[in-house]
Amino acid sequence: MARTYGGQPPQSGSLFDDAEQEAAAATAPLAVRMRPRTVDEVVGQQHLTGEGTPFRKLIDNDAPMSLLLWGPPGTGKTTLAYVVSQVTKRKFVELSAVTAGVKDVRAAVETARRDLGMTGQQTVLFIDEVHRFSKTQQDALLPAVENRWVSFIGATTENPFFSVVSPLLSRSLLLTLTSLSDDDIKGVITRAIADPRGLGDSVELDDEALDHLVRLAGGDARRSLTYLEAAALGMPQGGVIDTAVLERAVDRAAVRYDRGGDQHYDVISAFIKSIRGSDVDAALHYLARMIEAGEDPRFIARRIIVHASEDVGMADPTALPVAIAAAQAVEMVGLPEARINLAQAVIHLALAPKSNAVIKAITAASADVRAGLIGPVPAHLRDAHYAGAGQLGHGEDYRYPHDFDEGVVTQRYAPDSVADRVYYEPSGHGNEARVADRAAKIRAILRRSGGTSAR
User: Fold this and answer.
1) What is the pLDDT, as a whole number, of residue 307?
2) How confident is the model at residue 387 (pLDDT cuts 50, 70, 90)?
3) Which residues are paired to 243 by β-bridges?
4) What is the number of other CB atoms lying within 10 angstroms of the CB of residue 52?
């Protein structure tokens, strides 16, 4: 079912009179009451709302538009769509892809088309979670978008290149929203406490509780206002919301964790060392501790990716793809669901056989390069595709490995200065035990006497 809001105050004869409108506004959730009405009230997303940006130009010039808003929950996708309707004085019609079908889409489009023809009233058709629409349902939007019967705005938390049909994607301006910063969330909270539309200074929030609320929000403005409203419920006029009140209201204990201080570094250090030490339960504890404290999940994912090569490496070559997949899941799904993907990666890495041979190899190679052990590239390995290269001896005597039965041939690859260096020394753990055997055999073939030498 569509929800419709006019871009102008309701006129006489409208479905709801002023008293009913005010009563409905008074009972609306705090997050709805505090929804920005102008672009300047929007918190964060300056890369979209700043002067001269494509989005700002569209609304400042009241231009026809089709937009796709992609970002994590609570970053302002619905807010931006609503602001467009308010600033441009267009009717705002909202559909949720969770409950709406093709019939609802066509009905909303037909109403918008009739209004446009009869009164000139333009409509913003906002489809929340548009990625949940099937291909057929998304295709039903195309005529309205193509003919500009509506200003279409779709919101998605999933990558639109995978979840939105190409014709709709190509007809829309894609805008990417980012998680709000701690300062952004603090601004949202303090405004809601002071603004008459919000709590109107009826309560106070102490500094410790404010910090805890920011951590709980995890960059989600809607969540921060939902928790604030729950904490303020039943508070006396002028009452103070402290950490204890907030904990009771949202049933979440305050995790002592400063993202810029010792706790941040101590916990992530313990997390990595627990994975390295193969203590899966300790690793999961520290993962949960970071998530509950509001740590940026992308930071956690980056550390897992590094650990996959630094401490697991070739002992389990699947560790790195698993870690990267978890990081991609964080970007595509977001919290809270992505905590499951992160946990899977942590379990995989903690239980995997361990080897630090990869980091030792690249560290040793880098040390030689920094020490000046560079040396010229052997002539038989140099580029021989340009005119005159043959006269310089480039490519001469190069042996093409695929011409030999084993696919490996005695031949010098490294410069003379590091010809006898061994950087990669496999461990005997997991898959690397097999890698060690193969590496030894290959080195024996490559370094047989009589092979092509460097020139």
Assistant:
1) 93
2) low
3) none
4) 7
The number of helix segments (H) and strand segments (E) in the chain equals 21, 8
| Residue 156 phi, psi (nearest 5) | -145, 145
* Amino acid sitting at position 71: G
Position 310 pLDDT exceeds 90: yes
Q: Is the pLDDT of residue 82 over 90?
A: no
Per residue in 148-172, pLDDT tens? Answer: 898 899 999 888 888 899 999 998 9
For the purposes of burial, counting CB atoms within 10 Å of the CB of 231, is it exposed (0-12), middle (13-18) or buried (19 or more)?
buried
Q: What angle do CA 62, 65, 67 make, to 5 degrees?
A: 130
User: Tokens 């020139």 identify what position?
Assistant: 455
Amino acid at 50: G
- The pLDDT tens digits of the residues spanning 34-77 come to 888 888 888 888 888 888 888 888 888 888 788 999 988 878 88
Residues 270 and 240 in one domain: no
pLDDT beyond 60 at 11: no
CA dihedral 224, 225, 231, 235 (to 10 degrees): 150
Residues 35 and 160 in one domain: yes
pTM (2 d.p.)? 0.52
Say how many C-beta atoms besides its own lie within 10 A of residue 128's C-beta: 21
Is residue 357 in a domain? no
The count of structural domains within the chain is 4
Alpha helices for 277-318 (secondary structure H): 280-292, 297-307
Of 313, 268, 107, 293, the C-alpha closest to 216 is 293
Helix 221-232 / helix 182-194 crossing angle, nearest 10 deg = 40
- Name, in order, each residue with C-beta under 8 angstroms of 81's C-beta and a sequence gap of 6 or more: 67, 69, 92, 94, 124, 126, 153, 155
- Is 265 a residue whose pLDDT tops 80? no
Assign residue 419 the CATH number of its domain. Answer: 1.10.3710.10
Strand, coil or helix: 90: coil
How is residue 118 annotated by DSSP? H
Spell out the residues 6+ positions from residue 289 whose beta carbon is closer than 8 angstroms to its own: 255, 257, 267
- Residue 455: the pLDDT is 36
User: 286 CB contacts (<8 Å, ≥6 apart)?
Assistant: 267, 268, 270, 271, 274
